[in-house]
């Protein structure tokens, strides 16, 4: 099932790239394996996937030691400052930096680990009360502050669009994030590159690619529905 799903998603990505006149190599598929067992990650890994996304520190910690070490782990969920230390040496990219204080903690832990941590700044483009992320209007100022941190490198922006049955309704938000990244890029801020745009999930990744996504985060479309039991 996973192999077929990935084929379908890959096919959709290729087609979206074609529609947008983009090269397939500009888009990275992140397989969002949250709540799913390591065996399913392995199945996706065997088809050639190497980028996996998790939204909980605990789950990355559980899966990390038992899965191949060439996996690139992406932390896509809200990150608490006291948990930064557990993932600083495990994740390839933190997508969900939404405050200077969190970035300061990442700076602190990255310096101790003698590394530079790549991050994205999360923006709440749709202005939803329920979502984490910065307001569009405050993003540049926050980027400028984080840019001063030598062990933190901003690679771009991330957003979580509203849940919707009609992906077209999210196009405006993807376009807005892309525009914001172009605006910030034009400021040529030291230690900031705006090459990554993490946007698009199972319901809307094709539209996101048409609007410039370089990282799409697909969970359900690959691993099936998630069952949450408390
Ligand atoms: C769960 C999650 C996804 C994947 O969602 P699907 O709709 O299952 O593809 C993507 N991004 C974030 C931040 C998530 O938490």
Kindly report the spatial arrangement of strands forming the biggest sheet.
7-6-5-4-3-2-1-8
CATH superfamily: Alanine racemase
State the end-to-end CA separation: 26 Å
Give the overall average pLDDT: 97
Radius of gyration: 17 Å
Q: Given the structure, what is the number of helices?
A: 9
Question: What's the architecture in CATH terms?
Answer: Alpha-Beta Barrel
User: How large a portion of the residues is in β-strands, by DSSP E?
Assistant: 15-25%
For the secondary structure, the number of strands is: 8
List SSEs in N-to-C order: HEHEHEHEHEHEHEHEH
Bound molecules: pyridoxal-5'-phosphate
The helical percent reads: 25-40%
What would you say this structure looks like, in words?
- The chain has 230 residues and is an alpha/beta fold.
- It has a single domain (2-223), classed as Alpha-Beta Barrel (TIM Barrel).
- It has nine helices and eight strands.
- Strands 7-6-5-4-3-2-1-8 form an eight-stranded parallel beta sheet.
- Helix 7 (171-185) links the parallel strand 6 (152-158) and strand 7.
- The longest helix is centred in the N-terminal third of the chain and has 18 residues, at 2-19.
- The chain is globular.
- Pyridoxal-5'-phosphate is lined by residues 32, 34, 55, 76-77, 160, 201-203, 217-221.
């Amino acid at each position: 099932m996973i192999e077929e799903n990935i084929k379908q998603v890959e096919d959709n990505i290729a087609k979206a790239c074609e529609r947008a006149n983009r090269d397939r190599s500009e888009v990275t598929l992140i397989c969002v394996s949250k709540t799913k067992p390591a065996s399913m990650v392995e199945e996706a890994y065997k088809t050639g996937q190497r980028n996996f996304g998790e939204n909980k520190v605990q789950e990355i910690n559980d899966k990390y030691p038992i899965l191949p070490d060439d996996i690139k782990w992406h932390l896509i969920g809200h990150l608490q400052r006291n948990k930064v230390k557990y993932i600083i040496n495990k994740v390839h990219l933190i997508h969900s930096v939404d405050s200077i204080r969190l970035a300061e903690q990442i700076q602190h832990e990255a310096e101790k680990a003698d590394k530079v941590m790549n991050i994205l700044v999360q923006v709440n483009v749709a202005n939803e009360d329920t979502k984490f992320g910065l307001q569009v209007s405050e993003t540049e100022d926050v980027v400028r502050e984080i840019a001063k941190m030598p062990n933190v490198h901003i690679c771009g922006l991330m957003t979580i669009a509203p849940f919707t049955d009609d992906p077209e309704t999210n196009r405006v938000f993807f376009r807005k994030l892309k525009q914001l990244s172009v605006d910030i890029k034009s400021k040529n801020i030291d230690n900031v590159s705006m090459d990554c745009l993490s946007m698009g999930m199972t319901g809307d990744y094709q539209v996101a690619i048409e609007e410039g996504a370089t990282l799409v985060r697909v969970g359900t479309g690959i691993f099936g529905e998630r069952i949450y039991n408390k």
